[in-house]
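Section handout 9: paired folding examples.
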Amino acid sequence: MSTPESQPPSEDAASVSKKAAKKEAAKQEKLRRRQEQEALAAATRSLAVDDEQDPLAANYGDVPLNEIQSKTVEDVSRWTEVGALTNTLENRSVLIRGRAQTIRAVGKNMAFVVVRERGFTVQCVATVQPDAVSRQMVKYVAGLSRESIIDIEGVVSAPNVEIKGTTQQVEVQVRKVYCVSKAAVLPINIEDAARSDAEIEKALQAGEKLVRVNQDTRLNNRVLDLRTPANQGIFRIQSQVGNIFRQFLLSEDFFEIHTPKLIAGSSEGGAAVFRLDYKGQPACLAQSPQLHKQMAICGDFGRVFEIGGVYRAEDSYTHRHLCEFIGLDVEMEIKSHYSEVMDIVGRLFVTIFDTLNKTCEKELEAVGRQYPFEPLKYLPETLRLTFEEGIQMLKDAGVEVDPMGDLNTEVERKLGQLVLEKYGTEFYILHRYPLAVRPFYTMPCHDNHAYSNSFDVFIRGEEIISGAQRVHVPELLAERAQACGIELKTISTYIDAFRYGAPPHGGFGVGLERVVMLFCGLNNIRKTSLFPRDPLRIAP
């Protein structure tokens, strides 16, 4: 269930925050000026070439615009990905493209450039050689700006010693180098953004001060922040979660639908909606695909799922709330009991966890280097507890809680801790919630109408999924909507969909970003949102 909204920061806290922001801005401006000076010095060195004509000038330089405007069709198989560079290619000529991550000159006759492509890095060496590499070419390499996109043609070599600071344990002896896109002075350094807190603290203890890039600075420069190994891993893991979700459900005879995000009334009830004018009519952005995925079931679709945007106008200043996120939604016919929906949830998420652990080892390792975490503990068969059982566990532990109220964040975490201690799992289902804390379309329990046929699912003590059997009887649906303060005229087409025969059904919804955040043990959902939208941020 959703948690109580956090209060906006106090005036004192806002003042402190503004001071911290000014201090951070001043630090970043100082860094920017220093980088500009370094870039100017590098450019000056690059221009200070010998006056004599370089006979090897065709082997290096900036690529003219007309050469990168899809001028010619070439065989892409001649390119080698940086991640594929191994000692099996020793003495082979290769062509690679990537970013100039670091550049270092060693005298006038040698320069090193580390090339990065999608998280993989390789060291390239330009050494003056007759009829191959000129001194002017070495100076050109030394003058490249960091993060520029470059093409390098060279020969793979395998040194006898370990190459530190790169993922690939080979070098490329440069024969040709061309700059495809020159990077301007960077507002943040990628190596700074990639550091772990532990690395910064260790350096501090040793008397060395390393730059710590705070979250707002990262998000303001998100296009650079996304280039860190951890972020490359996070969003590849996120892609896999969506893929596994889709493939599992397709194998279970579900099929994918796409519901509208512009609707006439609130889909969840309450005031937390983005309202807008729709050609002179009041409308809002959908808080979930709930109403329309149920209508799809009434249309005899049987089993459906959707992956799409969800919009919540909540003023929630927390580590786990966003105003826009990607929803993974499921709806299905029920034959006899809402436990059928929980069966799908349990098998689906165990499949997701198993597959991620098997196929995303490198990505998880990259995330863990910057944001250390313990692997998620879960059982092959997902644990289920009733809400009443959960309340009793809390009471036995001395936690005071309303037996018919919702669980707040602190109580959820405490229950997660108790479940881990007793059952050895950080992933479990809590079901049969009080009806009063569930949406209007939730089916009441047959034996006690104070409870409902609903459930929440938790990872590491935090809720990630809400689900339930839905009310498919139009009269009861109208009664429940009115009790929740929803105007019937705004959902009349939804209620009417059940007047022509509707099968018992249920489903659930989960936020993609929250799944990745909790699986990877991250401390803020903004780390798993590509371009986060929260109450204070709508750009970039």
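Moving on to protein 2 of 2.
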Amino acid sequence: MAVPAHDTRDFEFAMKYTIPISWVVKPDDSNCGNFKRPFSGEGSMINSSCSESGLDINGLPSKEAASGVIQWLEKSGNGKKKVNYKLRDWLFARQRYWGEPIPVIFLDDTGEGIPIPETELPLTLPELDDFTPTGTGEPPLSKAESWVITKDPSSGKPARRETNTMPQWAGSCWYYLRFMDPKNSSVLVDKAQEQYWGPVDVYVGGAEHAVLHLLYARFWHKVLYDIDVVSTKEPFKCVINQGIILGEVQYTACKDEEGNLISADSVGELAQYKQERMPEEKVMKSGDVFVLKDNPSIRLIARTHKMSKSRGNVINPDDVVSEYGADSLRLYEMFMGPLRDSKTWNTSGIDGVHRFLARSWRLCVGSASPTGSYPDGTVTVDEKPSIEQLRSLHRCIDKVTEEIEATRFNTGISAMMEFINAAYKWDKLPRSIIEAFVLLLSPYAPHMAEELWCRLGHSNSLAYEPFPKADAAYLKESTVVLPVQINGKTRGTIQVEETCSEDEAFRLASLDTKLSKFLDGKSIRKRIYVEGKILNIVIDMQKKAKVVQQ
């Protein structure tokens, strides 16, 4: 940038080669003569005038300097304000061996580019033992001279093939169509198959592809629509861009020039200070910030980054699977948060979902023997489930179904955790209830669900079973919160069945510790009861009851 006073790399270069440094922005709270480091923040302009041209922006806030220069350019007739737009070019050609070869030849005599006839398609790559860079700027394919040197099929003139290849996007822009008809050797996709399967119902892609890949796929599809290869103008009905899983939180401490630790909240430009990574075991949380355990006055910088080898924060899924199992890894990735959000990885967080799967397993199979083995089959019974068990199951089915359709997998898992908590309180586990739960669990933990399904006595995979459907009859709450009034004034509430009788509602109110103090020893003149709505007890404040209601 050639501004050593205000750019770290330029400053280091200028200091090494003793290049003069001219300050043009001065911090509002400092003198530039005290600068020992480059300043990249906002301030006031200095050394920014030219008597010959009449330009003088000294004293202007640096934020306003650009506008000041533009005004001077327009006033002096040297330029005018203009809005610039950035156009994204799709660089299609690649100078590498892998990739689809471009079906174009160039005549030797004129250099004219000619597409090869369709009868010679598809054009395949030649076999090469050496596809390393040529060192001459030509692509590796230029080494295959017997393939490169060819003739124009129509005129017989000598020609050379294009040696650049297509990018990987060339295939990924339309591969969804090939899935509809993968073995067709005559056309890209059969019209009947495309009309049956297309357009794609749900397309899930990473956030980094939210613009470019989606844009190019739509361009490609629209061209295919124009030439009557596909029957729809758009390729996808719904596109979901999943968030990025970031590496674990990294903690950094700042040091001054002498190597002393300083608190992060006392530094200005971070680039001016040395930074040192701190291991998690030396860090603790204090309020909303992180500090050193040994010196809580030192506040640390806590940041998350995309996983990369250079940062050393890559989590190898094979290691997680080896320790916790594939289902635990799969479940944790869904439990981290909404699919569309970026999430921060925390290896210790896997323990929670791992325990949930273990509890689900023990609920169905029973406890392990002293040797660690489990009995065959399950502990379920072939009995009719109770109303409460059916309500618990169908509330879970309803919630999990709703959350799957909305891609809120984390809250779907929470609903199954609630079901397991309720099921552990039951004396018996009806087989029909557990079978439905295992089917609910299968999209989240397919390996364990298949094993449980087999233990439940099924010979076929549960993949062929219909997903459970919630019965609306069991979704209604069986109890209501009933307000209780004493002489017209609400004194509390009680939990009652929807069809609770007046006598039962009064009995429950009499047993309630908060309400009983208003009723004990009092004479009841009247009871007004609206089923499921309210209970109003009118008492005689003057008379004592002969018999205390129990």
